[in-house]
Write a structure and sequence with these properties.
Layout: E1 2-14, E2 17-25, H1 40-47, E3 52-59, E4 68-73, H2 75-103, H3 107-132, E5 140-144
Antiparallel strand pairs: 1-2, 1-4, 2-3, 4-5
Helix pairs in contact: 2-3
């Protein structure tokens, strides 16, 4: 399970259920890399350093704005999503390139049909995720972390 801590930024009630809006900070490992100044990825990471992602999740426990929650994504789900989004369109692109190169002698047609195959693959993945896997590719709320704001009672030391 890949875990991330997020902060509750909004709490709403819809149809008798509590819905919370959670913000997570986008993290990059470029800060510890020695080549970050000479790397394009490091430049992009610095440009997106303060980016926050938000999502809405159902929550059965009482939470307050500013409280932290733990989110989780199963590794198998991440692997399945990666195959759908990256590998399937890539294989589609290569497959369409092979088939179209057998049918056409012009390189322009091969490129066009390869790109069309990849585009249709992306659209098919988008449709599949929208219809068949509602909630399957969303993070789960694992725990509501205790608030660090605790009430401290002061002791009058003059009475001791």
């Amino acid at each position: 399970m890949i875990e991330e801590v997020g902060t509750v930024i909004d709490v709403q009630s819809q149809h008798g259920q509590q819905i919370i809006k959670i913000a997570t900070q986008v993290k990059s490992t470029c800060g510890s890399c020695h080549a970050k100044d000479n790397c394009g990825t490091g430049v992009i990471a610095r440009a997106l350093a303060n980016k926050r992602d938000t999502l809405w999740l159902k929550c059965d426990e009482a939470v307050a704005i500013g409280q932290e929650v733990k989110l989780g994504v199963p590794e198998a789900m991440l692997l399945n999503a990666s195959v759908l989004v990256y590998i399937l369109p890539l294989f589609s692109l290569i497959g369409f390139a092979i088939v179209s190169s057998m049918l056409f002698t012009s390189e322009g047609w091969v490129i066009l049909f390869s790109l069309l195959g990849a585009t249709f693959s992306f659209l098919g993945v988008k449709r599949y995720i929208a219809k068949h896997s509602k909630g399957q590719f969303e993070p789960m709320l694992l725990a509501v972390l205790p608030s660090l704001k605790t009430k401290v009672d002061c002791i009058d030391v003059s009475m001791i």
